[in-house]
Every structure is written in C-alpha cells, then in structure tokens.
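User: Here's a structure from my thesis project, written as structure tokens. My advisor, Dr. K., wants to see whether a designed sequence matches the one we expressed. Can you design one independently, without my sequence as a hint?
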C-alpha cells in the first residue's frame, strides 16, 4: 500500500451505537438527515454550504461551513480504496478499514445517519498500540477529517506491523500533544471572548476575574466611554488603598499611547491604573507605561493566562460562556525513584 494512500478519521454521531452501525453492518455513516440525498447536490463546496444554510437557517453561521465541508468530503473527496480509522469510545479500540463503496443515501437503514459508505474492517487494535501523537490526531473534534501527521503509523498497523506495545519517546510526543492542546484551548478562549464578550461584556468578565483574584469590583454600566470601566479595591466600601482604575478594550488591535495616557490621566495619587486589552500595545504605549510604577498593561495573552489560572473560581455564568474541562496528562518530568 502506497504511503500516498489517503487516511481518514471518522467519529460516530453522539448517541449512535457505532459498534452495531459501523462494525456489524460494515459501513461508515454520518448524519444531517434533513439535507436529504447529498448526491443530488452540485459537486461544489458552495452548493453544500447553501444546502446547509437552507436546511438549518438558525444554526450558528460559523459552524455551517465546517459541517458542509464534512459532507462534501464524505461524498466527493473520499475514494474507494482509502483507509478509514474509527476510534471507538465504547471499548477504546481503534478500528482500521478500507473504503469499498461509493456514497449511498439510505435513510431506510438508519434514519439519523443516512449518508453512508461500505467499509471492510481489517484491524481492531487497542489504543495502547499507538503513540500518543497518533491518538491525539484521531481525537479531532470533527466528524470526518484527514489523518496526515501520523498516517504512516496507521498504515503500518493496517499491514499488521504493530508491535505488542509502542514504547514512545513520550517526552517529545506528549510535549507536542500538550502544546497542541494548550494552543487549541487558547484559540477557543480568544474566539469566544471576541465573539460573545465584546465591549461591556468583556469589562464585566474582567470585573468577575478581579473578584476571583480577591478584589471587589464595581463595573460601570454600558454606555459612553468614560475612560474607566472598572474600579477595584480590597475593602467592602472602596475607601482603603489600593484603588485600581481599569480600562478594558475588547478589540484585538494594538492599543496606542493616547488611550493608555488617557486612563493614566484619571488615576489620582495613591491609585493604580490597569489597562486590559484583547490585543497588544504599541511601542509608544509600552514606553509610556514602562516608568510608571502605578500603571500596568495586560494584553490578550496575559488575560488568557489569568483566566486559566483562576478559572476554578469562576461562577456558572462565565464557565458556561467559556466551557473548559480539566485534563490530566502524563508527568514526563517526574523521575521514578
């Protein structure tokens, strides 16, 4: 089998018994049944996207192109002879097979997953037979995706060349996986904040973050920009120092010296100024703040660091806005005694 063979990964839809549907029937299948027979659509991504928009007019605009792409690839890019991998969550096995059939629309067989292809399953192996990097790649959030970085490892498994247990150099592999998880998490937080916490919404979140850090925060109501969005303090009444005046910018553009100096102009003696931005700061703004002991600039990356550090103290509203789950990974820095 050529190393140029296309390798696909696929996940069953939630609630689907993949063991019965995939393994016993010898197929792979995906949903979106309301769209109908996908072979009736013009063979273009634009046509699939338009069909999704017609069928699901209330769906999130950002999700539709991704879902349309999944359907298009299942029908027009996947080919007979391609390798397909299905990681089963039910029994923690990795199923590897060959695509044997063209696209079929069969709602009479499975109404929720009518879009299918015939597959001949060749190998079923435990997850421990694969490197952590390979397992991470087939853990993609997409229903259908192309496996590229670790395709050769799965092709070797298909050929029966898998050792009983793969002893990884996990220091490097797990480090790469951890980095990918961290980057994905940070991208998710940035996208959530820039989409759902613009303007006053971000100021309210920063106020809550300050409260999680041990301050009391008074967030100004929505309205004209008065230069100070939050006043934070330690005591109940806000009389005792330090008093912190906070300006929040939800834009990802660099904040200039004019905005920073405007905030500082409202900071009285014995008070502190804090500028929080989803973007960064110009060199002039950084230079202005450099010699001010009572002025602090926080950019988007540092804001995310603080959110992650204090996330456990967030209330249910903000945990619902930024849904995260604690994940445990092997500690490669710990030596056995």
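Assistant: Designed independently from the structure alone:
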């Amino acid at each position: 089998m050529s190393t140029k063979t296309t390798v696909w990964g696929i996940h069953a839809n939630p609630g689907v018994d993949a063991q019965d549907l995939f393994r016993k029937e010898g197929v792979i299948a995906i949903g979106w049944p309301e769209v109908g027979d996908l072979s009736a659509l013009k063979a273009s991504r634009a046509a699939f996207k338009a069909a999704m928009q017609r069928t699901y007019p209330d769906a999130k605009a950002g999700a539709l192109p991704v879902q349309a792409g999944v359907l298009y690839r299942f029908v027009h890019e996947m080919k007979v002879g391609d390798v397909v991998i299905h990681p089963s969550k039910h029994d923690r096995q990795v199923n590897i097979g060959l695509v044997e059939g063209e696209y079929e629309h069969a709602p009479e067989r499975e109404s929720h997953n009518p879009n299918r292809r015939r597959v001949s399953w060749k190998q079923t192996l435990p997850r421990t037979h694969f490197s952590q990097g390979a397992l991470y790649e087939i853990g993609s959030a997409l229903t259908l995706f192309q496996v590229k970085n670790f395709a050769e490892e799965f092709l070797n498994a298909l050929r029966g060349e898998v050792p009983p247990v793969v002893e990884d150099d996990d220091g490097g592999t797990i480090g790469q996986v951890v980095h990918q998880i961290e980057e994905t998490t940070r991208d998710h937080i940035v996208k959530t904040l820039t989409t759902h916490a613009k303007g006053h919404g971000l100021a309210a979140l920063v106020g809550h973050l300050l409260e999680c850090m041990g301050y009391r925060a008074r967030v100004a109501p929505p309205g004209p920009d008065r230069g100070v969005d939050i006043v934070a303090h330690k005591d109940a009444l806000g009389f005792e120092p330090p008093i912190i005046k906070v300006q929040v910018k939800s834009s990802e553009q660099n904040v200039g010296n004019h905005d920073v100096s405007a905030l500082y102009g409202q900071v009285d003696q014995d008070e502190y100024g804090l500028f929080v931005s989803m973007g960064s700061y110009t060199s002039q703004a950084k230079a202005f703040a450099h010699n001010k002991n009572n002025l602090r600039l926080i950019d988007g990356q540092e804001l995310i660091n603080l959110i992650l550090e204090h996330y456990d103290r967030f209330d249910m509203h903000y945990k619902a806005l930024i849904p995260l789950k604690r994940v445990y990974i092997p500690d490669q820095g710990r030596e056995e005694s």
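When you compare it with your expressed construct, this may help: The longest strand covers residues 115-126.
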